[in-house]
Amino acid sequence: MDFLWQTELQCAIELKTKLELLQNSFDLHGKSSFIWLGPYPILLITDPEHHMLPAFYVSCSEMLSKWEEIVPKETSFEVDVWPDLQIMTSEVISRTAFGSSYEEGRTVFELQKNKLSM
């Protein structure tokens, strides 16, 4: 029992020192900073979704406006959303990772799709 207690205490002490290291890095350099673990730099990004939200908004807005054009006003309509969701996913990946739209990287995504189907 004493061994478990000592192990838990050591883990808590190590965790506290590591969290203090992170907090000091945030205080000195801001939310996006880096720390060194031995010879290796470690990049700390505390809010990565913040930069992705505009891409999600644009891609979702484009998809919804496309659906609004397809569906007649004040009627019920069945829409196959799967192809549009695949395109929207590729669009978001393309905008967040490469800074371009899906249309610009269409050939790359089509080649990937063909490769997966083989």
From TrEMBL:
- Identify this protein by name: Uncharacterized protein
Instruction: Please give the coiled-coil regions recorded for this protein.
Output: none
Origin: domain of life: Eukaryota
Query: Is Aminoacyl-tRNA synthetase given among the entry's keywords?
Result: no
**Cell compartment(s), UniProt:** Membrane
GO CC terms, sorted: membrane
The UniProt entry, under InterPro entries, shows: Cyt_P450_sf, Cytochrome_P450_Monooxygen
Question: A single Gene Ontology molecular function, please?
Answer: heme binding
Q: Which family does it belong to?
A: Belongs to the cytochrome P450 family.
What are the alphabetically sorted keywords of the record?
Heme, Iron, Membrane, Metal-binding, Monooxygenase, Oxidoreductase, Transmembrane, Transmembrane helix
The residues that cross the membrane are none
